[in-house]
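User: My instructor asked us to take a sequence, write out its structure as tokens, and then describe one feature of it. I'm not sure where to start. Here is the sequence I was given:
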Amino acid sequence: MKLSILDRSRTRRGAPDSAALTGTIERAVHAEHLGFERFWVAEHHAVPGIASGSPPVLLAALGARTSRIRLGSGGVMLPNHQPLVVAEQFLMLEAVYPGRIDLGVGRSLGFTKPVREALRRDRNAPDTFADDLDEVRNYLEGKGTVTARPQVASPPSMFVLATRRGLDFAAKAGLPVVVGGPILHGSGASVPELDRYRDSFVSSAAHRDPYVMISLEVMIAENDDQARELLLPEAWALAQSSRTGEFPPLESVADIRTQPWTPRLREQVDATIASSIHGDAEQVKVALDALRARTGADELLASTSTFDRDALFESDRQLSLLYGE
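Assistant: Let's start with the prediction itself. The structure tokens for your sequence are:
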């Protein structure tokens, strides 16, 4: 199974947003050294806990510091952008860093009503994702109503960040998918939605066969308790966002432990940690093998984050060793 990383440029309490972006660049360099297949970044707007609002700009910086690893978006949210502009941005990246650029696209709107309004998005607007997806691909392949530039020898690879409905779009378009969340955590021997994606997949020029990338947090530490502690800052932030409506910066474990915990808060934190794969290297390998068998995944996109950067880098290192040649 190929191994890749999604880094969301998480901010940390007491540190400037610029430190989150510097940390993303350093992690990409580290990931390339470890032999990861891809390093992706995210798009979030006006979120205190995430510094990355423009994947193409950040990817340009990553490309300048790396030489081999594939770089991409996880993802660009098409409802927020004109298809031609998206195509131009990623063609530009492909021209500068040929053979290394991925365009992952999603369909999520802004996190809050003020953000959606700032993006000129109406929650009740018609869903044009399927048409936008086709339009972006046509521009990338030089088949659009106008010629997007710069022209490149081979277009960037496209991926769909897929919910259940998104899987149907991707199958019809002949595109690989990235799946995460509840769809991965069922109890059956397989995932019906992924079975349907594979059964209905229409081969395309770029992709003759279906391709599934699974995305979730994977934390490796000396033991299960330490791995849970490292996952706590992200789980705490998610629980806080459900209470306040604002996704906050990461806090240290020590600071989190001094704050009041309600039963509901503890339940949410425990549920988030339980949805990850964590433990020592052997435990993680067993769990990943089981998930791979159930999903038929071709690749893992680890979306792990924690307050302690050194521990995060070490977890990445341990993960890189699990499926070595």
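For the description part of your assignment, you could build on this observation: The mean pLDDT is 94. Try explaining in your own words what that tells you about the chain.
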